[in-house]
Design goal:
The protein has 20 helices and 24 strands. It has 877 residues and is an alpha+beta fold.
């Protein structure tokens, strides 16, 4: 066969996905070009690009060859190289309609929608039968808010090439935009039949079903899309259509959460980050998953750091318009299937019959290369015991500007105002203070970030911030530690606790700078970075028992951190991760527990990390992890870009010891071990078994008053306290999708927490004479079983019933803490409007009106202490 006949045969084989009967003839530029298409049909994009380059080496004046090179460079995200090759192609073949259309896609990728439309018009005028040109113009129409005109162009494209799966998928999306659900489903089903290996229509169908309240079916479609993802159709990628803003930003965590699969949500989010670290939507997915675990009363802060850190990374990596910048709006609430200029309004109002209100509101949008979000959060809660009220307000403004397709800048300003009584968790509610008042303000915190993409997978992130926090505490009946010492030796010979009038204020002003570099290929990911934080902590402390004791100190906070993480996809089922970080921390010895100290402490730590993710069988994943890390002082701990998880286990902690037990322990050393098995069965059963060991070691200075001399004058002093905490936990979670509407689930968690609390300066004999916890080794075992059933009907009606069983035993306490064993039952019902435009929900919590006594040594979420009515209204436009 002559070279041109051979090239034509190979091109036909590529279109029909046939195997070549004989080796191709690669003597001509046309032969290499045909071979490029054949390699693409075999999912060998890199080799296809090399073949296209061989074609233009053979014939440098071959315009079609240069356009082919540009197509493949663009499909790999290398826009600069694509533009260079395309300019040569257009110079040599000015009336090449495919080249004109490609120019339109390049301009659209730069968000130059008006200019892109001009080139699509030129392509259509040159060749009215070119489907890619009609599809590109349709995308631009939709991006400009002309949904019906865009849908009509998409339909022309699908008519011209009726057997292309990608065109049918996009036409299905366009039908959704014009509120024609039946036609959308028809096109997506046709796309699935045309290319059974293409995950795109399954993903789009999952998003549509979720938007129309078919959550269980959406999960089916999503799982199918995941299964096919490694065999995706390469033709669809030729114009980066898989980077459509809405699809790339779709946060599928909410689909799992709607059917109660919170653990699956977190695991899937972490998996997404592990497999594609530079993908902004994976980080946002993970941030939303951690957000669902946060304590709304801001007492237990274990998940504050990973949530805020992942949110910052997502905001820096995402192009303008890909995600809403709002902290309050999840990606499923931002449910548009095509990106474009828009203005959005979101509100979520919740009410509890004990007199608690919560209001989340956001105004957000984007125009061209600029995006913004204004968030307001307000929470008011009277509490469930005297002096248990809390008021929390947070206001933030976020802006992002796309400078070039590779460069963007991000700005954030947020302010908060918090006030409360005693909101800590207690075993005995009568032990809470009736007089303590707390306020905390941040006015404002400022952040600025910069992102540059050097090439696909190679990113530089820069984050700078100014942190401000003012904390006040006032308690006219505070309990103060009084010590008496041997005048000669300084040995403590007497200890007591006495009431005193206490007033305290601390002001933190700090600055943070972090630079991170990401290198990512198909099998290797390297993340390296460095962080520097510096600031001043000014404290004013006043304690009066007999005579007033006032103190004013100004001390510094400094942190230097460096880190590196390397992940290697050894083979398809096996991923190994290794990391190392170094931290140097300088901080006040005691700036929190009056009377305060004017001394500073410092420590440094080299922290290794190791993780493994192994999938020996389809839908079976084994994970393991070991990490060490060094905590910080205040809010500064959460301002970071360093990776928060290894192999799906969180390693970024603001604290591990529950704050209700120990309060703030600055400079704590953390160590974690974890093993997990995640199994998905064909019966729509999801099983997760995980064991985790968390360790926290910290020491601090506790303020005391020394009773000195015959007049027993109060002299400010302090004693050193060391706190060693361990939490061993076993968690078993099983979820079952029973039908298209019904989901059941159960989770069981067994945790053993122990605390070794040592004050060397106070002998055990003396510590037994007062109520301060010291020189003790205590423990608690908590079991919690959660059972639930969720019914989601396509009409929008949904209902949920759940029961929670808790049982706890305690040991080591001087005064025995009796265990508790109780059930609580909750029911909910509500209605969701199509496309998540609004949602109404009511519920009855703690139906049996069951109070409880739980030791906060085990980390647990607050449960209502009496029968409580819940109501909420949410809307999103």
């Amino acid at each position: 066969m002559d070279p041109f006949g051979s090239a034509l045969s190979e091109l036909i084989a590529s279109v029909k996905h046939q195997n070549l009967q004989k080796a191709p003839d690669l003597q001509t530029a046309s032969g290499w070009l045909a071979h490029s298409y054949y390699l693409q049909s075999e999912s060998k994009l890199g080799e296809a690009l090399e073949a296209a380059r061989k074609a233009v080496e053979k014939s440098p004046e071959f315009g079609f060859g240069w356009v082919r090179v540009a197509e493949l460079e663009f499909s790999m995200g290398r826009s600069d190289r694509a533009s260079e090759a395309l300019d040569k192609g257009l110079t040599l073949s000015a009336r090449n309609a495919q080249a004109l259309a490609l120019k339109g896609y390049l301009l659209a990728a730069e968000n130059k929608i008006g200019q892109a439309s001009v080139y699509f018009e030129k392509a259509i005028a040159t060749d009215g039968a070119l489907a890619n040109a009609w599809m590109g113009r349709g995308l631009c129409e939709i991006r400009q808010g002309h949904s019906e005109a865009g849908r009509q162009d998409m339909q022309v494209a699908a008519t011209l090439e009726p057997n292309r799966s990608d065109l049918r998928s996009y036409l299905g999306k366009a039908w959704v935009e014009t509120n024609h659900r039946t036609q959308a489903d028809k096109e997506l089903r046709l796309a699935e039949r045309l290319d059974p290996q293409d995950p795109t229509p399954w993903l789009y169908s999952a998003l549509v079903k979720e938007a129309y309240n078919q959550e269980n079916e959406a999960i089916d479609e999503l799982e199918k899309s995941k299964e096919l993802n490694n065999n995706r159709s390469v033709y669809r990628s030729s114009f980066l259509l898989d980077q459509d803003q809405s699809v790339r930003s779709a946060n599928l965590a909410r689909i799992y959460q709607d059917v109660g699969m919170f653990d699956v949500s977190v695991h899937e989010a972490a998996r997404a980050v592990d497999l594609d670290y530079a993908n902004y939507s994976a980080h946002l997915f993970l941030a939303d998953s951690y957000d669902s675990l946060r304590d709304p009363r801001k007492v237990n802060l274990r998940y504050e750091t990973p949530w805020f850190s992942e949110l910052l990374v997502a905001d820096l990596l995402a192009p303008v318009g890909a995600i809403p910048l709002s902290q309050n709006v999840s990606q499923q609430e931002y449910s548009r299937l095509f990106g474009g200029d828009r203005l959005g309004l979101y509100s979520d109002t919740e009410y509890l019959s004990r007199g608690a209100w919560l209001e989340d509101a956001s105004e957000f949008g984007n125009s061209g290369n600029t995006a913004f979000a204004l968030d307001e959060y307000y929470r008011s809660d009277r509490g469930e015991r005297p002096n248990n009220d809390a008021q929390d307000g947070n206001y933030s403004l976020r802006l992002k500007q796309q400078i070039t397709p590779q460069d963007s800048v991000f700005f954030e300003a947020n302010a908060s105002d918090y006030s409360s009584g005693d909101v800590l968790q207690y075993y005995d509610q009568a032990a809470a203070s009736h007089t303590l008042r707390i306020t905390e303000t941040q006015e404002p915190n400022l952040f600025a970030g910069y992102h540059h993409e050097w090439a696909p997978g190679i990113h530089t992130l820069l984050l700078v911030g100014r942190l401000q926090d003012t904390f006040t505490e006032a308690d006219p009946a505070a309990s103060v530690l009084i010590t008496t010492k041997n005048a000669g030796t300084g040995e403590i010979i007497g200890v007591s606790q006495r009431p005193a009038d206490l007033a305290y204020q601390s002001d933190l002003t700090a600055y943070s700078t972090e630079l991170q570099q990401i290198f990512q290929t198909a099998s290797h990911t390297i993340v390296v970075g460095a962080r520097y934080q510096t600031g001043d902590i000014d404290t004013d402390s006043f304690v009066q028992r007999f005579l007033p004791v006032g103190q004013t100190n100004s001390l510094s906070l400094n942190r230097i951190s460096g880190y590196g993480y390397y992940s290697w996809q050894v083979i398809e089922p096996l991923q190994l991760t290794a990391g190392l970080s170094y931290d140097y921390l300088e901080y006040p010895q005691n700036s929190e527990i009056p009377p305060v100290s004017n001394s500073e402490s410092h420590k440094s730590q080299l922290s290794p990390k190791a993780g493994i993710r192994w999938t020996p069988f389809e839908n079976t994943t084994l994970r393991g992890v070991y990490t060490r890390s060094l905590g910080g002082v205040f809010y500064d701990t959460s301002v970071r870009l360093e990776p928060t998880e290894v192999a799906g286990f969180n390693q970024a902690f603001r604290s591990i010891i529950p704050e209700s037990v120990a309060g703030l322990v600055p400079g704590s050393e953390f160590e974690t071990f974890g093993l997990a098995l995640d199994q998905e069965f064909q019966t729509h059963t999801y099983l997760s078994i995980s064991g985790e060991l968390l360790k926290s070691h910290g020491s601090r200075m506790v303020g005391t008053l020394d009773a000195f001399g015959p007049l027993l004058l109060d002299i400010p002093s302090g004693v050193v306290q060391t706190l060693d905490y361990q939490e061993k936990s076993l968690t078993v979670v099983m979820n079952q999708l029973l039908s298209k509407e019904l989901a059941l689930g159960t989770s069981y968690r067994l945790s053993r927490a122990s605390l070794d609390d040592d004050v060397p300066g106070i002998s055990p004999a003396l510590s037994g004479n007062f109520s301060l916890s010291a020189n003790r080794n205590v423990g608690a075992v908590l079991q919690q079983l959660h059972l639930y059933g969720i019914f989601n009907h396509p009409s929008g009606f949904f209902a949920k019933a759940e029961s929670i069983w808790s049982a706890q035993s305690n040991d080591g306490y001087a005064a025995e803490l009796a265990g508790d064993n109780f059930w609580q039952f909750n029911v909910f019902a509500g209605y969701r409007f199509p496309r998540r435009l609004a949602q109404i929900q009511v519920g009855l919590l703690n139906i049996g009106n069951r109070d409880y006594k739980l030791n906060p040594l085990n980390l647990y979420s607050d449960l209502p202490r009496s029968r409580t009515l819940f109501a909420s209204l949410k809307f999103n436009f």
